[in-house]
Design the sequence.
């Protein structure tokens, strides 16, 4: 059986601990406000496809890699 001795808090330590508890409760005492699901989604209008962008160019690889 292990015998433990407990230290006794002085009134000054108790007051400092109480102040720290109040400060901690003030800072972390409540959770942040919930974020609605609607606020987590970004919507943008779709753009129309550009036909000039999707055309085939046989020398594109040469322009892209060597030019």
Sequence:
């Amino acid at each position: 059986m292990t015998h433990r001795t407990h230290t006794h808090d002085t009134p000054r330590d108790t007051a400092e601990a109480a102040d720290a508890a109040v400060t901690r409760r003030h800072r972390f005492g409540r959770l942040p406000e919930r974020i609605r699901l609607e606020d987590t989604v970004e919507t943008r209008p779709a753009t129309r496809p550009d036909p000039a962008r999707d055309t085939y160019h046989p020398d594109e690889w040469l322009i892209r890699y060597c030019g």
